[in-house]
Design goal:
heterodimer; A: alpha+beta; B: mainly alpha; 31 helices
Amino acid sequence: MPLSVDQVLAMAPDAASAAAGRKLSSTKSWSGLGQNDDALWGECKGSAVYQVRVSCADWSYKCSCPSRKFPCKHVLGLMLMAAQDPAALPVGPPPQWIVEWLEKRQATAKARETRQEKKKTATMADPAAAARRAATREKRVADGLERLELWLRDLARNGLAGLEAKPFSFWDSQAASLVDAQAPGLATRVRSLAAIPGSSPDWPVRLAEGLGRTALIVQAYRRLAELSPAMQAEVRSLVRWAVSQDELAAVGEVVEDTWSVLGQVITDEDRLRVQRSWLQGRQTRRAALILQFSAAGAAFAEPIVAGTQFVGKLVFYPGACPQRARIVERGEAIKLTGNAVAAPYRRDADATLEAGKMPAPLKAGEPASSLEAGRMAASPEAGRMPALLVGHDSPETFLSEVANITARNPFIERFLCVLNDVVPVHTGSGQWQVQSGNQALPLAGDGHWRLLALSGGQPVDLAGEWDGHALMPLGVMVGDRYELLPVA
Amino acid sequence: MEAITKQLLVGTSRLGGAAKLEAGEVEALLAQVQPVDQEMRLLLTAGAWAAYGQAGRKPLAAVPLPEPAPETDRPVVSPRAARILEAMFAGEHRDLLPEALERVCAAGLRLPEHLLPKALDCPDEKYRPYIARVLGARGLWLSRFHPAWAWATMTVEAGSETMPADAEEIWDSGQIRLREAVLRQLRRQDPARGREWLAGSWAGEKAENRGRLLAVLEVGLSGEDEAFLETALTNRALRVRAQAAELLVRISGSAFLQRLCERADACVSFKPATAGKITSRLKSLIGRKSSGELVISVPQDVDAAWKQEGIITAPPQGVGPRAWWLSRIIGLVPPAHWQERFNLSPAELLTATIAEEWETAVLKGLTEAATLHDAREWFDPLWDHWMGAAGLRKDESLIGTDRNEPLGPLLARMDPEDANRRVEQLIREERSTPFSWFRGLECLPRPWTPEVGRAYLAHVRDRLKKAPRVSNVEIQTLDLAARALPPECFDEALREWDVPEGNDYTLQYWRSQLEKFTEVVLIRQRFVKEVGSV
């Protein structure tokens, strides 16, 4: 089991599940435990006997219990046991129900492929019908935007003061109307605005910004034709994030690399959970954001575990400065290893990054090429993995990268931020920041005590999410280990 | 952006006129958009400024860096051990923390960095002394950045061999636990100054703290403390007076001790044995030769001065006031006083006949006195006497408010080895004594010796085998045993427990208690394996 206990616990949907999983992580509640290269399995005795199985390929899982939490405590217990004491799960031939499960999963995957093929041919077969459908959809979106604009105008007219007293339904009904209009991207945006009023002393500014950006998107969508193809794709995805998989496969750029999952932020918006996973390619140094949504407590479709890495392919959603991606192909997820190579190599890697660095603005449509030089140079001798965290060595260079990206795509609001050799500081006035030389970046939220403890006041390499205002630390290198940080 | 935000906050309907937009590039951009109303203009401007702001963000100014943590530190515990500790800090079996942390400390290890914030946040004060010792240099460094964690440095300093530099500050403003610690420290080095500190703050101390602080004077106690203790005898709180009295009687030659002995002497006298008395003949029948008779005469009413001087407390329910006074008085007088006065050894004194109504009170008093004055030569004779035939007749109602008194404290005062041996014997003999084996187990230092552990486990297994359906005290002791068994007994404790099939209440009780028992022992076993049983 290449997953650590911490990583398994991080998958728990809540603290209660984690505790319950821990309780079930001793062999006494289990029978028929086993594992092979493909799966872990076991039968757990609860109020009935539940069959629990976990795929080793991507940590997807299934349990026959009726729990509505995903993963359920039985799955967590099984994975914890495997992480703590692999010997508890003897290697052996899988029982029939495991064989069936694995077969069924394969069959489903194949079925999906054929379905896509069929769909593709169908679309080609009847372009007229496809165009009709597209027109209807556009009409609905346009109507939805009309209503959204009206709502925004009302807000501006009546003023934002007092919005903190509005119930969630005030925001949600507008969001629901956007869902009906097939603009779920905007719907999610409106729901996330609901959390801003009253949340911090500067909420009016944040809300003004959020509403302003929403207005810009509406405006941009209206004038889609005037935009470059890349920006068109970007704006479309902001309005309705569900770019179909076929479409994505056709136009998205595919990048193969060893992808490190540097951190994950999960936000709960009423019934909708949004998961943002930040990945970085170890060879290409490409940053990727994988967004997943789940409704009503269901599991996220793609299991992505922070602090792991996998060799695989990501496809990037088309747009200016593509950042959002999804996984098309992945190998086994293994625990993140740190600087396999000692310090001198690290400096090398820094130098190469310097050479092919982001500040030289990437032209839309050819994002990989200008990094190509960096990739080639960063490619170490065979078998050696480049250092895990290679990023900016000063806040200034990071911010100028943000400026560059924003200049090409003003709709990107979040960035992966990797900083080398920064010192976390709790300032006298109770603020948190990371410093390098005479520059500093503010940290988001409060209580970065674990980060401070891990750093010991020394410079560290850090990964985080920058939201245009402050940095939310996601993980930090401690010696050779990558330690995940709790996301407040 | 601020100007835009303000206008949006108020709303255009209340702006009374056109919205004021910041001129410049944004204005030029807006001009390219189809004619829009002022609401939309405001919003679009806000959106544009949000993007401009994001692109134009500048680094903040750095502040002076604090001193980094010391580079050399103890090694950290293994990741497995860290996970067990993390669960305990999160509240799972938190009561196992002291033992676990003590093991970490004894192994020369410290907590890993990621656990430090949780450890420093530990809300339960009683764990803090244990936590403080495994924070390491890194943890102490970290604690200085958070006012709520100031206890860490204070605790480490208060527990160290040398007087902390800021001892006076701790004394003036620290938590009571830390104040006790520095006072104890000071008393070791400079008893007079320690007394002066306490005397200086005495008037302003909270009533509930006075007794605790006064008890610290036990360290370095001498005749010089007498005057201060005498003033404490006039305190309004009975607890403080009783505490002062217990200290004064330990200053040989103190006036209070003399007054006390006079009172005690008036109550107790000794008549050497004369042949023919029925009781003494009875005693010789069961193999105990009486040395004589202790004649007791307790006044009908209590002297007001007794009350004032903290000798008398209210008798517990079911105990006669005069018997209570007697046991309190004898409980304070050094047992050596009686040895000298009647010229008898402890064993001889204990075989003396006593009128039945006073017997338990005298025995209880002597036991308390031996414990208080650490009169070790009395420990064995007293224990044997209680456990012997004499003890069997004792009226349990006088034993005390706490059912473990007075033998529990006596057991705790004994050498751990002796204490363990005594309890082991109790378990093995399985006979009825006024002080049962399970009470003895509660009073033993933890962990128990392997001998006690084995005797205990054998006994419980035997009971489960012979009488599984009889509700008994053994089931209730499992909770304690899970936490007190020594590592040497873990394997034996974890061996399969055969609870017969069935749904009786008692069988279910056995099962649930054994499940909890096994869980706790397993956690302890895993931890010991990780950290070592140093």
